[in-house]
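Hey, weird one. I pasted the Two component regulator propeller sequence into the form twice and got a warning about non-standard characters only the second time. First submission, copied straight from the form history:
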Amino acid sequence: MIKFIFLFISLFVVNKNFAQDYIVQKISSVPLEATQFIGVDKFNNMYYVKQNTLFKKNREQLVEFKDLQLGDIYYVDLLNPLQITLFYKEANTTLILDNRLNELKRISFDRLADYKLVDFCTTANDQSLWIFNADLQELEIFNYQRQKTELQTLPIAEEVLHQKSNFNFCWLQTTSGLYQFNTYGSLIKKIEKVFDVLEVYKNNILLINKDGESYYFNQKQNKLNTLKLPKIEFNQVHLNDEKLYLYDGEMIHIYQITPNN
């Protein structure tokens, strides 16, 4: 296995003199009774977990998926709504579901010839997954059709708290900040700030501090901008395009992210 060397690190420094502030403007609120609000896909379908069952809801239908033998649903990745990644950490297993929540593929990391203990699992490209190998403390791209690790990074020398990804990049939230890796396994950016919430949608990254400043980063603009959030309590956060969804356990509050001109 070839290990790719980190090519370079870009350290972001927030400068309020040049950073363009953003605010969120309320659009609407929608009631929801759920254990966890997952999010909304690009087709405007809503996903949530209730009684350890994944639900997909739109105006026409409600479909569900559950496999109670695998334990609690740990993470649901909606990056590709036609191939949803469903991770059961307790069972060390990932399922790939279609757009009707039918099971397409089951990856039991315990049963691989190259055993892996996985802490985080999110969607990559080309029938692959971004996985964080807990034994090696390395981020990997794992092709689940070939059942082969295609690349891995150098070990991460600190605790990883969360992972988010799109088809081209993966972000690891650690105890000291945020790391961004590309599909070659190279560390390309680092933000040395600690956040409570990390959300990613395409080229946009949302970094939330519940008791401090929050930031909105656009990959194309390459700017880290301050973001003014509403003062409400929330349990889950979802970012879809320039819409922000905050779930407080009873209502989903929907906001539009706009420049604070």
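That's the output from the first submission. The warning seems to come from a hidden character in my clipboard, not from the data itself. Residues 10-259 form a domain with the Neuraminidase fold (CATH 2.120.10.30).
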